[in-house]
Amino acid sequence: MKQGDLEPGLVLDITGPGADLNDVVSWRVIGRLRGQSTLLFDDTSPDVEVDPTDETVAVITHTWVDGETDALGLLLIEVEAIWPGGRPQTFPTNGQTSIRITDDLDP
After folding, report:
1. Residue range 10-101 in CATH 2.60.120
2. Mean pLDDT in the chain?
3. Number of neighbouring beta carbons within 10 Å of residue 48
4. Structure confidence by residue, pLDDT tens digits, 13-44
5. Residue 2 pairs with which residues in a beta bridge?
């Protein structure tokens, strides 16, 4: 992804633990640059579409906003689902999704 780009949105495919993802109480998409401890973004209202033919599969879309893609480097991303009773689950279950932000020739 190029520095400062806001399109396309970040689209993440989620496959649940064999449970109906329609039961998830809330979703959150978070990201930070590798080597940093502060979150770059914390989206508590991403677009969520659960597959109507397989409720264990969902597509989560984060719409970029100004500033989220300004810093160069490796952006690490996770999705957090909160199940009934406040029980969290993080996707992917191992590691993080990553996007490299590279410099734009005309910043």
Report:
1. no
2. 95
3. 18
4. 999 888 999 999 999 999 999 999 999 999 99
5. 102
Q: Tens of pLDDT along 3-14?
A: 999 999 999 999
Q: What is the 3-state secondary structure (H, E, C) of the chain?
A: CECCCCCCCEEEEEECCCCCHHHCCEEEEEEEECCCCCCCEEECCCEEEECCCCCCEEEEEECCCCCCCCCCEEEEEEEEEEECCCEEEEECCCCCEEEEEECCCCC
Contact 11, 55 (CB under 8 A): no
Which token pair is 98? 């990553």
The ranges assigned to domains in the chain are 10-101
For the entire predicted model, the pTM comes to 0.91
Burial of 18 (0-12, 13-18, 19+ CB in 10 A): exposed
